[in-house]
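TASK: fixed-backbone design
INPUT:
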């Protein structure tokens, strides 16, 4: 798959992680999406297919209309229903990758509802906020339009669950994923059941699952992209055997095999693509 990454406006940084501009789906079935608590708004333009759990048989059909992608704690890949369909798609196709709390912040709906299927955007939402998408002369204009539309959606919500954002900030930036749920509940002064309930509602994952998949994603990228040795990895597991077991749980094979398959271009990792440019605020 040939795609570029663009950052959102500064005002959307807690909601949109980045925009993905797909220019071709050639080779898409070799692309893996590591779990990181995020998901996508898919502004579909003819893609027919499904996302599939890597190494498993679970499939999630992609709606023909604009939709929100499924949220899982497993590695996913994209599969076209017909390999020839890629030639009939109108490009570019734009995706908005949402932060772990982005879906809840935009639509004020429980993210746990995305665990089993895509959610089509309501016709009224498309008409009000996205009817002029794909009518602009440049990608920059398209993304500026999306920035404005998503800011308007967010402004229309009465959303007060920013505590979960603070918890995520602590997990990622203060503890670097090396923290227990018990420690977080002590710091934020709430019970474990309350934290898990709110986290599941807003993020779609429990705090424990979020820490587990996010740590794996960061570790895998450091190992594959930066070719770090085990001792050089910032996000350490207890030993090599532990790291091997985690990689096999997500990818079905050891880290060294994944590294070799990436090097030989047998697979691609979505998160390895760098941001090409920033959109205007």
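OUTPUT:
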């Amino acid at each position: 798959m040939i795609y570029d990454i663009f950052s959102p406006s500064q005002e959307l940084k807690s909601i949109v992680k980045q925009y993905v501009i797909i220019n071709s789906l050639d080779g898409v079935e070799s692309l893996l999406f590591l779990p990181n608590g995020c998901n996508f708004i898919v502004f579909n333009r003819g893609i027919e297919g499904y996302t599939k759990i890597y190494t498993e048989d679970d499939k999630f059909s992609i709606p023909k209309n604009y939709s929100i992608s499924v949220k899982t704690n497993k590695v996913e890949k994209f599969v076209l229903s017909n390999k020839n369909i890629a030639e009939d798609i109108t490009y570019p196709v734009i995706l908005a990758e949402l932060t772990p709390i982005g879906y809840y912040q935009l639509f004020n709906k429980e993210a746990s509802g995305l665990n089993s299927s895509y959610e089509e955007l309501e016709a009224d939402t498309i008409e009000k906020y996205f009817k002029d998408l794909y009518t602009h002369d440049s990608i920059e204009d398209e993304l500026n339009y999306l920035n404005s539309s998503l800011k308007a959606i967010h402004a229309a919500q009465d959303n007060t669950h920013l505590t979960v954002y603070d918890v995520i900030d602590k997990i990622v930036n203060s503890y670097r994923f090396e923290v227990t749920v018990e420690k977080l509940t002590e710091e934020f002064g709430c019970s474990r059941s309350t934290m898990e309930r709110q986290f599941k509602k807003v993020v779609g994952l429990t705090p424990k699952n979020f820490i587990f998949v996010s740590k794996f994603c960061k570790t895998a990228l450091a190992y594959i992209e930066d070719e770090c040795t085990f001792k050089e990895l910032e996000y350490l597991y207890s030993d090599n055997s532990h790291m091997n077991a985690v990689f096999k749980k997500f990818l079905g094979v050891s880290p060294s095999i994944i590294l070799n398959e990436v090097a030989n271009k047998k697979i691609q990792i979505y998160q390895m693509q760098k941001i090409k440019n920033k959109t205007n605020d």
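COMMENT: The chain has a mean pLDDT of 89.
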